[in-house]
Amino acid sequence: MTSTEIYLELLRAGLWNRPAVVSGSVKFAELVELARHQNTLPTVSKAILDKLGDKLPQKTHDFFQDVVQKCEKSHQAANSVIAYATQELAAEDISSVLLKGQGIASHYPVPTIRQAGDIDLYVKDFSRARAVMARLFGPETEVGSKHVTYHVGGTLDIELHKYTEVLAKESQNAEYQRISDKGTSEDLELVRLDGHFVNTPESTFNAFYIFHHLWHHFTGMGIGMRQLCDWAMFLHSHKGKLDQARLGEWLETFRLKDAWQVFGCAAVQALDLPPEDVPFYDASKARRGSRLVDFFLVQGDNRAFKHGRHGQSKLRHKGGSLRFIHRRFKLMFPIFPGKALLQYIRDVKNGLLKLFKAGTPNHGLE
Question: Cα–Cα distance between 127 and 124 in angstroms, integer?
Fold first, then answer.
């Protein structure tokens, strides 16, 4: 087995909490690099420990054990902050809805092996919620067009959302906001974190929202296999519970049904997600799904292109970003040719505008 094949097998084993089946020599340095690039190192680390256990050299065993333990602690910290923030908001009669992240992790067979990230809380009473959050966590560290950010010690950030998402096309955005408003108000799904129940979106809207966010990252500047895992685990845990009529209508409205089906094939191929867990699964798109898996493995998260490398000049950062955009276009074109071409033209134009400081400023929420 190649390192990529071993990585995918370990990823599947960690996701489904089953023993890995690995043959050939295991090159741990290559596995760690692959898993980090895909934001799945804790998932793979657990599978390695379960498979090899005491057969590992002590230093190697300690490394993977440390990864798993740090991930468990990050989950505990995030869940504690979520419980605290949502209870404090509720005390002020402000309802909040947890988006993505820890809410999705709760649907994994082993939640604590999902690499934790930022906390995203959506509220409708945004102005009052900002005041509460400032009292709890101090001043905002970032103000964006759809959310503000608070730093909560260590490396944990919590984002307070005014919108779950904002679409570029005004007509589509108006329809999306209508769907989002209902999906974050009615029939909310409760998950238990740190001993407290927390709201997450209504399940059918959440399936659509998680995929829409996945698609946004795919067409943007970085996507890791963890995001495909999130969508797959959510679909598996909600098999037979989704309103397929509504979901199908939304996918048609936003022209995402083809993409949904291709991603479904990728999840089946790479993650062993049962095909029957994917609404509207279409096996005829398996070849494009296979190419999509290759796209994930080559591209990965690419945070350096989004945020720059430490000490790197702006000119070199933008040059690297343009090379990344060109490489991504070549990989995306055989899968989604129309979208790839439009995205390439848009990204090159925006990249050049930013390079020459002619981009449109973001005035944020103020």
Answer: 9
Q: Do 281 and 257 contact (CB within 8 A), yes or no?
A: no
More confident residue, 344 or 176: 176
- Distance of CA 126 to CAs 100, 122, 123, Å? 19, 8, 6
Question: By three-state DSSP, how is residue 99 classified?
Answer: strand
Report the amino acid identity of residue 32: V
CA distance 119 to 160: 8
User: Distance (Å, rounded) from C-alpha 255 to C-alpha 31?
Assistant: 36
How far is Cα 154 from Cα 220, in angstroms, rounded to an integer? 27
Which backbone phi and psi does 193 adopt, to 5 degrees? -130, 125
User: Terminus-to-terminus CA distance in the chain, angstroms?
Assistant: 54
The b-or-e profile of 275-289 (16+ CB within 10 A means b, else e) is eebbbebbeebbebb
Quote the pLDDT of residue 319: 63
pLDDT in tens, 159-198: 999 999 999 889 899 999 999 999 999 999 999 999 999 9
- Asked whether the whole model's pTM tops 0.85, one would answer yes
Beta strands in the chain (DSSP E): 96-99, 119-123, 142-143, 147-151, 157-161, 189-193, 196-200
Closest C-alpha among 280, 298, 301, 278 to residue 290: 298
Q: Is the dihedral of CA 285, 286, 287, 290 positive or negative?
A: positive
Beta strand 96-99 pairing with 119-123: antiparallel
For residue 169, what are the contacts with CB-CB under 8 A and spacing of at least 6? none
**Residues 92-134: tens digit of each pLDDT:** 999 999 999 999 999 999 999 999 989 999 999 999 999 999 9
Handedness of CA 274, 279, 284, 285 (dihedral sign): negative
Dist CA 155 CA 149 (whole Å): 12
Q: How many distinct helices (H) and strands (E) make up the chain?
A: 15, 7
Cα dihedral 123, 124, 126, 131, rounded to 10, equals -60
Q: Maximum CA pair distance of the chain? A: 58
